[in-house]
Amino acid sequence: MRDFAIIFQMNAIDQKIIAVLAADSGLTSEQLGARIGLSPSAAHRRVKALEEDGLILGYRARLSATARGNPSTVFVAVTLIDQRQATMMAFEAALARTAQIGEAHLMSGESDYLIKVLVRADDSYERVHREVLSALPGVHRLVTQFTIRTLITDD
């Protein structure tokens, strides 16, 4: 990985590559090159360099809500029984194995974590709360907020 000073000095072409791939990561090197004015081989080399530098972490498919089971989005503030390293590590490890978790953030303030829970249409939040979230190690308190409508998403 290049030095951070070099990473933050990305040139305009690298910035264009990142912007184009953020909008459509499925482009071939030929398509990418055509959009930013590079040959396919030059576009491929630059993308590989951005990956090696850790600026491009990976690629994923954007799935429709139908493909994801038409989930409802629920945000849950989690307070642990304590903030000892062992408690937090056990909670985080279990959380990483929990299929319903869309995002998880360690927070400052009143709660320890904020998690985004995706509840499939064929499931219920009551079941997820009772059987999944409450069973995570170290959980003291769960405060739930239901999403009415999503306005902006990076999915």
Question: Strands, helices and their partners?
Answer:
Blueprint: H1 4-7, H2 12-23, H3 29-36, H4 40-52, E1 72-80, H5 85-96, E2 101-106, E3 113-119, H6 125-133, E4 139-146
Antiparallel strand pairs: 1-3, 1-4, 2-3
What is the N-to-C order of secondary-structure elements (H for helix, E for strand)? HHHHEHEEHE
Strand order of the largest sheet: 2-3-1-4
The chain-level mean pLDDT equals: 90
Tally of individual helices: 6
Task: Report the CATH C-level class of the largest domain.
Answer: Alpha Beta
Overall structural domain count? 2
The CATH homologous superfamily of the largest domain is termed Lrp/AsnC effector binding domain/regulation of amino acid metabolism (RAM) domain
Query: What ranges have pLDDT less than 50 throughout 5 or more consecutive residues?
Result: none
Termini gap: 27 Å
Shape: elongated
Please describe the biggest sheet, giving its number of strands, its sense, and whether it closes into a barrel.
4 strands, antiparallel
> What is the alpha-carbon Rg in Å?
20 Å
CATH topology of the largest domain: Alpha-Beta Plaits
CATH architecture of the largest domain: 2-Layer Sandwich
Structural class: alpha+beta
Q: Helical proportion? A: 25-40%
Strand content: 15-25%
Overall number of strands: 4
How would you characterize the overall build of this protein?
The protein has 155 residues and is α+β, with helices and mostly antiparallel strands. It has 2 domains: 4-52, Winged helix-like DNA-binding domain superfamily/Winged helix DNA-binding domain (Arc Repressor Mutant, subunit A), CATH 1.10.10.10; 72-146, Alpha-Beta Plaits, CATH 3.30.70. It is built from 6 helices and 4 strands; from the N terminus they run ααααβαββαβ. A 4-stranded antiparallel beta sheet has the order 2-3-1-4. A hairpin with a 6-residue loop joins strand 2 (101-106) and strand 3. Helix 3 packs across helix 4. The longest helix has 13 residues, at 40-52. It is elongated and about 55 Å long. The mean pLDDT is 90.
